[in-house]
Write a structure and sequence with these properties.
The complex is a heterodimer. By secondary structure, chain A is an alpha+beta fold. Chain A is about 15% helix and about 45% strand. Chain A has 4 helices and 13 strands. Chain B contains 6 helices and 18 strands. Chain B is globular, with a radius of gyration of 28 Å. Classes of the chains: A alpha+beta, B alpha+beta. Chains A and B meet through strand 1, strand 2, strand 3, strand 6 and strand 11 of A and helix 1, strand 2, helix 2, strand 6 and strand 7 of B.
């Protein structure tokens, strides 16, 4: 009798332990992804200044400054982003509007509002999708990979969840699939690898220099390394975070020639 | 037959696994070293962030060597200097001032005097009556259309150019606006706008060069109005509908739209049509307006992963002439045909039945900041072609560029009627 009770107790204990361990080891990957989105992106409309410095073989070859206005859509929650070129002087005043893969480019010097495809780059190495605000959880399905130690952008070793992200609709995103490492404790994005449909590594990104901005610790620097030529590096720095409400009606092609927020 | 023992097989598999692991480890270490080097670069102190400013100023200096068309003897050498500036300033919280102007100075030793030309391309006040309601008054450069080489729905293009410029990008840069009153109402997924451009100046002399007329004469010699409506349909389609009328002409309808086929391919189209007289009959003073004519553009842009975009467009003109018709009209009345060619240039349109237009643009080709772009357009059937090519190296505040242009065609074609057969230009742009 005692033997049976002991066996039953051990069985229950094993179940509890297994369940606890499983619960600890397998958090919902989609929730993890949403939590990391919330760290990268404020939940309401905001603006920031993005400066990009591009290096080739260790030498700076280009630099540009952008003002980025982002606003979550009422339906779906994905961001609409309006990017205003500030520098270099040649590009000052140009605008890019991104709403999913619907992209418009406006050049004030010739009053041209041109539609562009996501593959058409305006910023050297950085894709248009890299400078826009994107909630990955809206566009990608996450699967939990291994938990592993990775070196973050500030050279600290972190225990991280690996999320494997697959595009829900390849026509609506910049990258076919992504590997994303999140800090196991804080869900902060540490590093990501972006792949093409043919599984070619397009670029690696490190999210670093976290500091308090708009109510949360957010990465203020992204270091992008080209997948084919690792000596091709772009550093994106984010400053001047501010809550900034922009009417929905301004985030469309017909308003581009008029956009002047200051 | 060479038979291996189980132990030998296990040893071989273990060796293969170890080799693969070593290779993977080496690749991983290499990647780690690359990442570490990249992060080290990023550690460099950040430069001061540039602030937005309300003005832009660009100085352009160029030297051009041209070979004139057969019949006009010799070469032509020109020096060009241009200053292009803009100011976009809020005068009050809801009131904005927009000014853009350009001054060109041309020196040609073959000509007796230097030429100076100044244009106010835009000068208007914009009043934001409410967040989504706007009113503009002044010289406004209102431009419509989604195509690159020709925009049939760009109704306000008439008289917007004083000189003939081949490159579509530069053509838009030189373009002047019309004096008008414009109202615009926006909503979350669309907009409607109405522009009214009154008759202010006397019409330019049809026999003279358009460059001799004032900007006002070219843009405001007759009353015009334009109504446009845009509405988003789904995530990927945003057509624009237009209705336009100029005094003395019948109303014209317009439609332009674009659609993404995949992440690299964009298709677009423009159409305009209405009852109108072909240009040669307008010059002849024919009446009444008894035919329905239309112009259209269908185009596709494909972008390669190496940052090269290729656009191919087909332009059609239902009132266009074939080779025999055009040649016969030119032979019958050369002076009237010359005026027709001028009118076509003024309206920025072709006289042929259709035109193929191929545009290629490559950014950062072979080296950072080196851009190559060019186009070729051919008027069909067999009415000449035009080729334009530019290599541009960008620096921080400076661009150095070399341009090559060539046009071929019989003297009665729009390309053959141009003064220059080919030209090369070296130019410097300085951005303040």
């Amino acid at each position: 009798m005692l033997g049976h009770r002991f066996a039953a107790a051990m069985f229950c204990l094993a179940l509890v332990l297994t369940h606890t361990k499983a619960a600890h080891a397998a958090p919902d990957p989609q929730l993890l992804l949403a939590a990391s989105d919330a760290i990268r992106n404020p939940a309401q409309a905001f603006a920031l200044t993005t400066s990009l410095v591009e290096y080739r073989n260790g030498k700076q070859v280009d630099a540009s400054t952008l003002t980025v206005y982002s606003k979550p859509q009422t339906q779906g929650g994905q961001f609409r982003t309006l990017i205003r070129f500030v520098a270099p002087a040649r590009d000052a005043g140009k605008l890019m509007l991104k709403n999913g893969n619907d992209l418009w480019f406006y050049d004030p010097s010739n009053q041209a509002s041109m539609r562009i495809s996501p593959e058409q780059r305006l910023l050297g190495q950085a894709a248009n999708g890299d400078v826009a605000t994107v909630n990955l959880a809206r566009d990608y399905t996450a699967q939990l990979g291994a938990e592993e130690a990775v070196t973050d952008g500030d050279r600290q070793t972190r225990q991280a969840h690996l999320l494997n992200l697959a595009a829900k609709d390849i026509q609506a995103v910049t990258y076919h699939h992504i590997q994303l490492w999140l800090d196991s404790q804080t869900q902060r994005p540490i590093k990501a690898k972006f792949f093409s449909e043919s599984d070619r590594l397009l670029k690696t990104a490190y999210y670093r220099r976290y500091r308090p901005e708009l109510g949360a610790d957010r990465p203020t620097e992204t270091v992008i390394i080209d997948g084919l030529d690792p000596k091709w590096v772009t550093v994106m720095r984010f400053d001047d975070y501010a809550w900034r409400e922009v009417p929905d009606a301004w985030l469309q092609r017909d308003y581009l020639p008029r956009f002047k927020p200051e | 037959m060479n038979r291996r023992t189980p132990a030998a097989c296990i040893g071989a598999i273990a060796w293969a696994l170890c080799s693969a692991a070593s290779l993977y480890s080496a690749a991983s270490l290499g990647a780690d070293a690359d990442d570490a080097a990249a992060l080290l670069l990023a550690d460099a102190p950040a430069a001061a962030v540039s602030a937005a400013r309300p003005w832009q100023l660009n100085l352009e200096a160029a030297m051009q060597q041209a070979q004139l068309q057969p019949g006009a003897s010799g070469d032509e050498h020109k020096g060009l200097l241009a200053l292009d500036g803009s100011l976009d300033k809020n005068l009050a919280s809801q009131l904005r001032l927009v000014l853009t102007a350009r001054a060109d100075w041309t020196s040609a030793p073959a000509q007796s005097a230097d030429q100076t030309q100044a244009s106010v391309k835009e000068a208007y006040l914009s009043w934001q009556v409410r967040a989504n309601s706007l009113l503009d008054l002044g010289r406004v450069n209102l431009r419509n259309g989604v195509a690159i080489g020709f925009n049939p729905t760009d109704f306000m293009r008439e008289g917007a150019l004083g000189t003939q410029v081949p490159d579509p990008q530069t053509r838009r840069k030189y373009r002047v606006g019309s004096l008008m009153l414009r109202a615009q109402q926006l909503w979350d997924s669309g907009a409607v706008s109405f522009a009214y451009s009154p008759e202010i100046a006397k019409p330019p002399d049809p026999l003279s060069d358009p460059a001799d007329a004032s900007d006002l004469q070219r843009t405001n010699y007759r009353e015009r109005w334009l109504l446009s409506l845009s509405q988003q349909w789904g995530a990927n389609l945003r057509p624009q509908y237009l209705l336009y009328q100029a005094a003395g002409d019948e109303p014209q309808l317009g439609l332009n739209l674009s659609r993404l086929l995949n992440n690299a391919t964009l298709i677009y189209g423009e159409w305009s049509g209405g009852r109108s007289l072909p240009l040669d009959r307008q010059v002849a003073g024919d009446s009444p307006i008894d035919t329905f004519n239309s112009s259209s553009v269908f185009g596709l842009t494909y972008t390669l992963p190496i940052d090269v975009s290729i656009s191919l467009e087909r332009h059609t003109n239902s009132s266009g002439l074939d080779q025999q018709q055009a040649q016969a009209r030119a032979a019958a009345n050369p002076q009237a045909w010359g005026q027709t060619l001028r009118l076509a240039a003024n309206r920025q349109q072709s006289l042929s039945e259709h035109t193929w237009f191929l545009h290629i643009s490559a950014r950062n080709l072979f080296r950072p900041k080196l851009d190559v772009s060019g186009f070729i357009q051919t008027d069909q059937p067999d009415q000449g072609h035009q080729l334009w090519l530019e290599v541009r190296q960008r620096f921080d505040h400076l661009d150095l560029a070399v341009q090559w242009q060539q046009q071929r065609g019989d003297p009665w074609t729009r390309f053959g009627a141009l003064n220059e057969e080919r030209s090369a230009k070296v130019l410097v742009n300085y951005y303040f």
